[in-house]
Amino acid sequence: MNKYKKGKHFILMLALAFAVSLGAMSASAPLDVHAVTNDSIKQKENEIAQKKKEKEQMQSGLSDVKKIKQGLEKEKKNLQNYVKQLDANLTQIEGKIQSLQLQITQKEEEIRVTEAQLQEALQKENDQKKSVITCIKLINESGRPDVLHLFLKSRNFGDFLNNADYAEKVVEYDHRMWQEYKTTREYVELCKQDLELQKELLDTAKKNVEIEQKNVEELIDEKAKEINKYELDIKNKDKLIREYEEEIKAQTAEIEALEKAVLKEILGVSELVYDGGKFVFPLKSYTRISSDYGNRIHPILNVNQFHNGVDFAAPKGTPIYAAYNGIVVAATYSSTMGNYVMINHGSELYTIYMHASALYVKTGDVVVKGETIAGVGTTGRSTGNHLHFTVRLNGNYKSPWDYIDKK
Question: For 363-376, how does the pLDDT look when each residue is reduced to its tens digit (9 = 90+)?
């Protein structure tokens, strides 16, 4: 056999061995032969581009507390307006926090999926390398040890194919297999880039949650200072007494209006009947009773005042439970009660949950005993995180302790 025929025979042998070994590998690999395509590459590139935009938006979407405070300055002349506007800002930030927490959950799932994609692509690439080694061994057995030497000397498989003077001939014999390998390598690199971006987004989302929570705390502290400053000003004493009386009247009027709406069957719940069962404790956990039900001496005004519920001090976000089965007749905001939920339990028995940081139910929802309906907060005329829990029967305030199961 002349030199030309030997060279041609060798290239043919290499190509056939390469094709057969790669074909066998493709049939057994965990990733389908057609799984990594140009469409897969384009899709992954689009995902990466989208995540880069998302990262930019995430970095520029934080609340500007300094700007918020400046905007609140003009409202300080009217405490009610000030509280209402500040609470609106708090609600907006709380919404951002909830959105970020949802993103964190989504990013964690996306990372899990991308890690699986990367492992499959790496396995495919690894199987291709193994098949090439098999191919080289076959060629080496044919009397061309320089091929094995060239492979071992190469930095990686791509380097080997690029440096081998017969690589183009191999591509000629099996262009599809070669293209498949290049696509797999590109997809692997894109998966790594995508995974890195996802981890950066996850870290950014977690950091932003911390920043926004600090923003909330800063605004809450600002509100407490303003309320305390206003209430401690002795010149405001008479005005404050009138304001407190007006606030209680406003609260009661709002609650009575809702009760009348139920009686008129506007919400269609007139057939609901309270069966006399005991209430579940309205908080998952609590620190202490900061103010009990009944008459008390106001700590600042030093006047006798009726407290129409029980204040339970608890950390921000502590789950608030529906005390008993019923239908939500209000889940809204007022400048005195803050974010609040009112539930009709039937037989003209109602419970009200005030000053929540967030509401998880809406008007018309049917709730069951122990269901989470809100989170503890300090919205409305409040200077610290707590739940103001109120019970009403036949249009009158009742002690919650008469209904709560203390066991």
Answer: 999 999 999 999 99
Give the number of other CB atoms < 10 A from CB of residue 155: 9
Q: Which residues of the chain have pLDDT under 70?
A: 1-35, 128-179, 233-237, 264-271, 287, 298-302, 407
Contact 21, 134 (CB under 8 A): yes
In this predicted model, what pLDDT tens digit does every residue of 261-292 receive, in sequence order?
Answer: 887 654 454 568 899 999 999 998 776 888 89
H or E, element range at 219: helix 175-232
Closest CA to 142 of 289, 17, 307, 24: 17
Which residues have CB under 8 Å from 143's CB, separation 6+?
Answer: none
DSSP state of 404: B
CA 143 to chain CA mean position, Å:
63
d(CA 325, CA 161) in angstroms, rounded, equals 72
CA–CA dist 349, 259 (Å, integer)? 9
Q: What is the DSSP string of 228-254?
A: HHHHH-GGGHHHHHHHHHHHHHHHHHH
- The tokens describing 3, both together, are 């030199």
Helix (H, G, I), strand (E, B) or coil at 119: helix
179 vs 29, 120, 134, 175, 317, CA distance in Å?
Answer: 17, 18, 19, 6, 55
